[in-house]
Amino acid sequence: MNQRKKNIRLLITLAGLIILTSVSWYLGRSKGRATFDKFIFTLGENRVITTVKLTNDNQVNLLEYLGGIWEVNGRHQVDESMRDVFFAVLSTVQVHRPVSDLQKDSIATFLEMKGTKIEISNNGVPVVSYLVGGNKEKFLTYFMFEEERIPYQMQIPGYLSYISGIYEVSESDWRERYIWSMDWSRLKTFSIEAENMDPLVFEYKNNFIGVQGVEKMDTVRVMDFLQYAANLQANTFLNESDYLDISDEPFVRIRVTEIANRNYSLDLYKINNDDQQVLGILNGDERALFQLKSIEYLLKIKDDFKSLD
């Protein structure tokens, strides 16, 4: 056999060995690779649930579907936008990958000590329960079933966000932003007193809401104003521990009375070194922040409601 034929045979043998080695490496790598179901924490869009309990070191928030609405801790209606975002997360979140073996124990311990436990049920029947936590600065979120202690890095495909954040919000962030719970069809009086302005009083008289001191009114302007006032929303409600440096006296006082003599109040204070927000004390108790521009619309005078005809 000449040298040329020997070289060709050696090349063929070498190629075969390379192919065999590559296949063996790939098969061995595939066997060692962890397989997982990326939807193990995902709730189907049509899955019916009635209770979500969120528990961590700081708080317990219970979301319940009662009488056709979602409530938080039996005290407040859940904000619709928060509700929609939360359920969108439940139905779209997916496993990105299991954490590495080197990180598994430390992240599992972190979730057990600092994570939020979520318990979801339907009419008292458990649906799923797991721990949630992560690293906000790095946009990393981990889920883990307690009994398995296998943390997974989570994702919402197409979005870079700290998913765990919505599981950690306080009751004040869950609650609806509308500040009034009154029946506006039973309104008796609605008054606004503001600095350097005459009081503005709306009252139910002669089967219609009118403005004191205004004989010929623009009814469209009156109803538009009251509709705006009825839908006034807070930017956010505050916790008792939140401190703000405010003015000594309110610059706006709003008082409302229903026909059944149920009374509501809102006192608004300017916040020192903040020209965008104001502090509101609702019914002498709850505190909330409002955008200043949303309040400025309420600072009308009687002439604003006079008919031009």
Would you write up a description of this structure?
The chain is an alpha+beta fold and 309 residues long. It has two domains: 51-174, no CATH class; 184-305, no CATH class. 25% of the residues lie in helices and 31% in strands. It is built from six helices and 17 strands. It has helices spanning 3-32, 80-92, 101-114, 171-174, 219-230, 292-296, and strands spanning 51-55, 60-66, 69-72, 76-77, 94-98, 116-122, 125-135, 140-144, 152-155, 187-194, 200-205, 208-211, 236-237, 252-258, 263-270, 277-282, 286-291. A nine-stranded antiparallel β-sheet has the order 4-3-2-1-6-7-8-9-5, with helices on one face. Strands 12-11-10-14-15-16-17-13 form an eight-stranded antiparallel β-sheet. Strand 11 and strand 12 (208-211) form a beta hairpin. It is elongated. It starts with a helix and ends in a 13-residue tail after the last helix.
Query: Biggest sheet, open or closed, and with what strands and sense?
Result: 9 strands, antiparallel
**Which structural class do the helices and strands define?**
alpha+beta
Beta-strand portion reads 25-35%
N-to-C terminal Cα separation, in Å? 116 Å
Please write the string of helix (H) and strand (E) elements.
Answer: HEEEEHEHEEEEHEEEHEEEEEH
Shape: elongated
Helix content estimate: 25-40%
Uncertain regions spanning at least 5 consecutive residues: 2-8, 14-33
Mean pLDDT: 87
List keywords for this structure.
309 residues, 2 domains, 9-stranded antiparallel beta sheet, alpha+beta, disordered N terminus, 8-stranded antiparallel beta sheet, 31% strand
